[in-house]
Amino acid sequence: MPEKLLSDGQIRLVRTATAIVMGLLVLGVTVALLTYPSWQLGLALALVVVAAVVAVLLPGRMLAPLQPGVPASAYLPSAGLALLVVALVAGAGVLFSQAPIS
Predict the structure, then answer these.
(1) Digits of tens for pLDDT over the chain (102 positions)?
(2) How many separate helices (H) and strands (E) can be counted in the chain?
(3) What SS3 class is residue 5?
(4) Residue 85 per-residue DSSP state
(5) Rounded distance between C-alpha atoms, residue 48 and residue 23, angstroms
(6) What is the rounded CA–CA span in Å between residue 39 and residue 9?
(7) The dihedral of CA 61, 67, 73, 76: what is its sign?
(8) Residue 78's pLDDT is what?
(9) With contact defined as beta carbons under 8 Å apart, do 4 and 70 qualify?
(10) What is the C-alpha separation between 83 and 10, in angstroms, rounded?
């Protein structure tokens, strides 16, 4: 069985820090949506919420790199989740910048 990148205590710490940062991001988009309602901000909020959930689950799935006998395909789930979080937050940023705030 492949070794995990982080210990149980480190996973809890990273998840807590991630939840705080992503929670602040969700709060910011929510305040913007309530202040200036638009479909762009609504969709951005949905993307950020999904990204927050995936980002909190990600640290427990990360494997230590370059382990002997571990195929490269074993690293794909954690890499895919990390790329998903980046893509969702980037998409939310584009929608946020296109929202009619005036």
Answers:
(1) 788 888 999 999 999 999 999 999 999 999 999 999 999 999 999 999 999 999 999 998 888 888 888 888 888 988 999 999 999 999 999 999 999 977
(2) 3, 0
(3) coil
(4) H
(5) 9
(6) 40
(7) positive
(8) 87
(9) no
(10) 21
The encoded tokens of residue 59 equal 């640290």
Cα 44 from Cα 91, distance rounded (Å): 7
- What pLDDT, on a 0 to 100 scale, did the predictor assign at position 27? 97
CB 94 within 8 A of CB 46: no
Alpha-carbon distance of 35 to 15, in angstroms, equals: 30
**Which helix or strand (DSSP H or E) is residue 34 part of?**
helix 8-35
State the Cα–Cα distance between residues 99 and 58, nearest whole angstrom.
29
Sort residue 5 into left (φ over 0), alpha (ψ -120 to 50) or beta: alpha
- Measured in degrees and rounded to the nearest 5, phi and psi for residue 94 equal -65, -45
Query: What amino acid occupies position 20?
Result: I
DSSP-derived secondary structure letter, 72: G
